[in-house]
Amino acid sequence: MSAPATTLQDIIAHAKEYGFVFPSSEIYDGLQAVYDYGQNGVELKNNLKNAWWKAMTQLNDNIVGIDAAIFMHPLTWKASGHVDGFNDPMIDNKDSKKRYRADQLLEGKAEVLTNEGKKDEAQALLNKMGQLLGAEDLEGVKNLIIEEGIVCPVSGTSNWTDVRQFNLMFSTQVGSVAEDSNTIYLRPETAQGIFVNFLNVQKSGRMKIPFGIAQIGKAFRNEIVARQFTFRMREFEQMEMQFFVRPGSEMEWYETWKENRLSFHKAIGLPTESLQYHDHEKLAHYANAAVDIEYKFPFGFREIEGIHSRTDFDLRNHQELSKKKQQYFDPEVNPETGKPFGNYIPFVVETSVGADRLFLATFCNAFTKEMVGEGDKQKERTYLKLHPALAPIKAAVLPLVKKDGLAEIAEEITNSLKPYFRAVYDDSGAIGKRYTRQDLIGTPYCIAVDYETKDDNCVTIRHRDSMEQERVPIAELKDRIGKEVAVERILEAI
């Protein structure tokens, strides 16, 4: 007998019950597509961000980090193309009054065709959609939806409005008096904060091409169709790195970062069979190459990271609009001319991973249901099989009973471990229930203090995944567990 397949509802329920993710403002019935990270969720998310940050800035001598402001001069978004072109194709069903993204309706149809074994038809549909969107033929997109027999899931009808573009940026005003205020935007991406600081970082850090700038920060998009838990939200966090390279070398670096980023996802524990590349059918206005790294969620393969060759689009546009040169002087000798490369606007290769999507992928991958025991005693076991370096709590110290000095020994052990990694003390309930409680939040090691501990200064370590137990001297706990839960284990695997 095998455990039932995991659904997204299983993930959502577990995340809430065990302190990982809560609906935002839940006492007021929540706010659609906005979530709060609970006491365990924030630890897991911070551990993921820490692993990414160190993988970028610690493993690479030529990558540094910044933290740019969320508010930026409005012309930033004019130069980037967001004011004129940051749109999603929307379509309404006249009967249900529900609004949908037209491209997602077509992608859903393609997914159905793929599941039916009609991969060629699915690909042809995606290709056709890409061509129509690329040509901004919105009437053609509507006709394609009708031709494919796509109906509203609520009304069951194909009584569609025309497709139109909807800008996704949130706007607000800055200024003390409304009449004198200027419209500014909540940033829809973190990348532009890097681009406008390109020369500041290059000059102050004496950086030489190629080099990268990394950033973790919040971004905001007015998603009309926000769904699938933390996968698509209106307020989200990005982990981006913009890598500045010599024009003509961008495709070599594009392939390098494509492989490097896949290695990172494997290093944090996402299995090879649940990851895949997906080349873009329709390139963004700034790109000459783009690929997504997709993870197999309970709702199918979806993007968790994008690698884009952005050419010199951003720096060139900022140079033209700001009238400030965004150039780099390259003293290296061009082998073709025998002269220095001189001044040029660098090309950019971007790696952009959604912290919230990575959190969800990691959580889904870790959520494990399995049958344990034999015969009539067989039962279902649920636990989070997180990489030890990512687990919210690394070790839980559990006295067998609260009397006879065992609790005091357990508390002393807990306090001795706290400076090195996150350890907690727990004496509530039977020890079997305490093991289960720690399993459900992904704690990799439980340390049991029993009566023998008073005689031999040893404790029993219980391993989360295998449930195996071993006797270990108290003096060895810091080094034994500390080694396994360190972020260095992830960095070593990249």
Automatic annotation (TrEMBL):
Pfam families to which the protein is assigned, alphabetical: HGTP_anticodon, tRNA-synt_2b
Residues annotated as domain Aminoacyl-transfer RNA synthetases class-II family profile: 123-392
InterPro entries registered for this protein in UniProt: aa-tRNA-synt_IIb, aa-tRNA-synth_II, aa-tRNA-synth_II/BPL/LPL, Anticodon-bd, Anticodon-bd_dom_sf, Gly-tRNA_synthase/POLG2, Gly_tRNA_ligase_bac, GlyRS-like_core
Annotated residues for binding of ATP: 221-223, 231-236, 303-304, 354-357
GO CC entries: cytoplasm; extracellular exosome; microvesicle
Keyword field contains Aminoacyl-tRNA synthetase: yes
Matches recorded under PROSITE patterns: AA_TRNA_LIGASE_II
Keyword vocabulary terms for this entry: Aminoacyl-tRNA synthetase, ATP-binding, Cytoplasm, Ligase, Nucleotide-binding, Protein biosynthesis
Chief place of localization: cytoplasm
EC assignment: 6.1.1.14
GO molecular function terms attached to this record: ATP binding; bis(5'-nucleosyl)-tetraphosphatase (asymmetrical) activity; glycine-tRNA ligase activity
Residue ranges the record marks as coiled coil: none
Compartment list: Cytoplasm
Swiss-Prot/TrEMBL catalytic activity: tRNA(Gly) + glycine + ATP = glycyl-tRNA(Gly) + AMP + diphosphate
Positions bound to substrate: R101, E189, F236, E237, Q238, M239, E240, E350, T351, S352, V353, G354
HAMAP family: Gly_tRNA_synth_B (MF_00253_B)
Subunit and interaction comment: Homodimer.
Function text: Catalyzes the attachment of glycine to tRNA(Gly).
Name under which the protein is recorded: Glycine--tRNA ligase
Organism: Jiulongibacter sediminis
